[in-house]
Design goal:
The complex is a heterodimer of chains A (about 250) and B (about 300). Chain A is an alpha/beta fold and about 250 residues long. Chain A is built from 6 helices and 13 strands. Chain A has helices at about 35-50, 70-80, 95-110, 125-135, 190-195, 235-245; strands at about 1-5, 10, 35, 55-65, 80-85, 110-115, 140-150, 150-160, 160-170, 170-175, 200-205, 215-220, 230-235. In chain A, a hairpin with a 2-residue loop joins strand 8 and strand 9. The longest helix of chain A has 15 residues, at about 35-50. Chain A is globular and about 65 Å long. In chain B, the strands form 3 sheets. In chain B, strands 5-9-4-1-2-3-10 form a 7-stranded parallel β-sheet, with helices on both faces. Chain B has a 5-stranded parallel β-sheet with strand order 13-12-14-15-16. In chain B, helix 3 (about 70-80) crosses helix 4 (about 95-105) and helix 5 (about 210-220) runs parallel beside helix 9. The N and C termini of chain B lie far apart (about 50 Å). In chain B, strand 6 and strand 7 (about 125-130) form a beta hairpin. Classes of the chains: A alpha/beta (about 250), B alpha/beta (about 300). Chains A and B meet through helix 3, helix 4, strand 7, strand 8 and strand 9 of A and helix 3, helix 4, strand 5, strand 7 and strand 8 of B. Strand 12 of chain A pairs antiparallel with strand 8 (about 135-140) of chain B.
């Protein structure tokens, strides 16, 4: 079985993003970029499945600018076997991303596609579900435990009410939640080795033939409304007095 | 004119309040007519409940085989099919809505507008990105808008006095590639975290699962729900359904009291809409104090017992 892991290059999760003063976007110049943390968990899960002898090859795919090769190399250093960059120099919305990934999936015929449940930049939480729908294969989203049993997978999902378990027939799309695993650290020799692993680049237009993009228009970026500045109290009595005054206790 | 179809969520017994919040958002679109779609293997009773949501004209009650109504694959195709006559299809931004709605969007060939926090007009909405560190205005000029509604941004409406018509449908296709196995739920007697007016929330500062008990005790004392930071859940102090934040629950209680939570931006995004935020942390420089309305720096193991005694 092959596993495809789809990743996204995003502003590192430690960066506190600022909206540009003219409202046209967020400032990303010179900002640290990383693999979307949920996607890093997806890579780790694919590697563990391979290491358990349940998959032969892990292929990591991203859609983005040429700079995203850095993140693909990191994934290769973690242990992925080869990488594909679907090159696009403009922002890609979810349906186009899913359509492009479908093209790769149809060529590679993986038994599993694993990807993060959402990217921490646009917080959309759409692409895995869209890919599963377009591919007409099952989805297991927000997965915190995954067990591969031959032709099927048992997935435990983090849902509002607790933990839901579903069984999906493979091939299927899995979207990862935070507690699925803890991704490994990359070691220096692996970074050197990763430089020699295959990385193919294809233009996005070769993957989305005939696709009619119903894009959404983003017309304005703004900072969120700040909360009013609060007060510090010195004692529990003072705290209770404030809460009583507000009618909260 | 806008015709809006809303996916109703339920647990077999009651309509999830996220449904009502989605109705509230839909009502903010001028002249909108609002219908619901609800799925169950035993749909009549729950559809009657859905019909009580004020402002809803018709409830499409869809009968599914066994537990297929809990699965995206079991409901998305029917929603897309019935969406033909609608301009908008909304779902709540719950894990159920997040699972299902992008499938509907893909079937309809649309991008989804996720987590609408404000309705500007029928085609224009605001939504948060970067864990709420930026807000974007999104416009669609397509014939169908598929969206999820950020539940913390809209109020629960009247869920008792409506009298919508009920139209029956069924899903005939059997999908066998996805099977529901089980739901493990805390089954707490406490108020529901997503809708509670008060929330007591604990973080890494609690130190252990045993210590976390004082959060439950304090919550019971004031009739609050309990929440937690990701760190507390990761450390195994409490179950995942208590996680508040970017990837957990986004909540808007009147009172949010946090104990031993430092306040990572991913956590803060989950509580920004709370009425009053109280922070109790031993580190007086913790980022939680930047959003707190009332802060008290100190040892929570001394402060909580004192609160228990004096409240």
């Amino acid at each position: 079985m092959k596993i495809i892991v789809a990743i996204k290059r995003v502003v590192d999760y430690n960066v506190r993003v600022q909206v540009k003063p003219n409202g046209t976007g967020v400032a990303t110049d010179g900002v640290k970029m990383s693999i979307n943390p949920f996607d890093e968990i997806a890579i780790e899960e694919a590697l563990r499945i391979k290491e358990a002898g349940k998959a032969e090859e892990v292929i990591v795919v991203t859609i983005g600018s040429n700079d995203a090769q850095q993140q693909l190399r990191t994934a290769l250093a973690m242990g992925a076997d080869r990488a594909i960059l679907v090159e696009s120099n403009s922002e890609i919305q979810s349906l186009k991303a899913a359509t492009s990934l479908l093209n790769i999936v149809e060529k590679e015929q993986p038994g599993l596609v694993i990807m993060g449940k959402q990217a921490i930049d646009d917080d959309n939480n759409q692409t895995p579900q869209m890919l599963a729908t377009l591919w007409q294969r099952p989805q297991a989203t927000f997965v915190s435990k995954l067990e591969i049993n031959g032709e099927s997978a048992l997935a435990t999902r983090e849902v509002d009410a607790g933990l839901e378990t579903i069984e999906v027939t493979l091939p299927a799309v899995i979207s990862t939640d935070l507690r699925l695993n803890e991704p490994r650290f990359v070691k220096l020799p692996d970074i050197m080795k990763a430089k020699r692993k295959p990385l193919d680049v294809i233009g996005i237009n070769n993957t989305i033939e005939g696709f009619n993009d119903n894009e959404l228009n983003v017309t304005k970026f703004e900072s969120p409304q700040p909360r009013e500045k609060g007060i510090m109290v010195e004692s529990v009595d003072e705290l209770i007095a404030v809460l009583k005054e507000k009618g909260l206790v | 004119m806008s015709k809006i179809l809303i996916l109703a969520q339920h647990d077999g017994n009651a309509i999830n309040q996220g449904t009502s919040k989605a109705v509230t958002a839909a009502k903010q679109i001028d002249g909108a007519s609002i219908d619901l779609i609800i799925f169950s293997d035993d749909v009549n009773t729950i559809a009657a409940e859905a019909a009580k949501l004020e402002g809803v004209a018709t409830v499409h009650a869809v009968t599914t085989s066994n537990e297929n109504w809990k699965l995206a694959a079991g409901v998305a195709p029917k929603i897309a099919e019935l969406a033909t006559g609608y301009t908008h299809v909304f779902g709540p931004s719950t894990t159920f809505g997040k699972d299902v709605m992008p499938c509907v969007a893909a079937l309809l060939g649309q991008n989804q507008i996720s987590d609408i926090m404000q309705v500007i007009d029928a085609n224009t909405f605001k939504r948060p990105i970067y864990a709420g560190n930026a807000v974007i205005t999104v416009t669609s000029n397509h014939d169908k808008i598929v969206a999820t509604i950020r539940t913390a941004s809209f109020k629960t409406g009247d869920m008792n006095s409506g009298s919508a018509a009920i139209e029956n449908h069924s899903v005939d296709t059997v999908q066998s590639d996805t099977k529901f196995v089980e739901l493990q739920s805390g089954n707490s007697e406490r108020p529901d975290l997503q809708t509670a007016s008060k929330v007591i929330s604990g973080g890494r500062g609690l130190g252990s699962e045993e210590n976390f008990e004082i959060m439950y005790k304090l919550a019971d004392k004031i009739g609050a729900a309990t929440g937690a930071s990701r760190a507390a859940v990761d450390a195994g102090y409490c179950p995942n359904e208590m996680q508040v934040g970017q990837t957990g629950k986004i909540i808007a209680p009147d009172l949010y009291m946090s104990f031993g939570i430092s306040g990572a931006i991913q956590h803060l995004t989950g509580i920004k809409d709370a009425g009053t935020i109280v922070a109790i942390n031993k580190d007086a420089d913790a980022p939680i104090y930047e959003v707190a309305d009332v802060g008290l720096a100190g040892d929570l193991f001394k402060i909580v017992p004192e609160l228990m005694e004096k409240l």
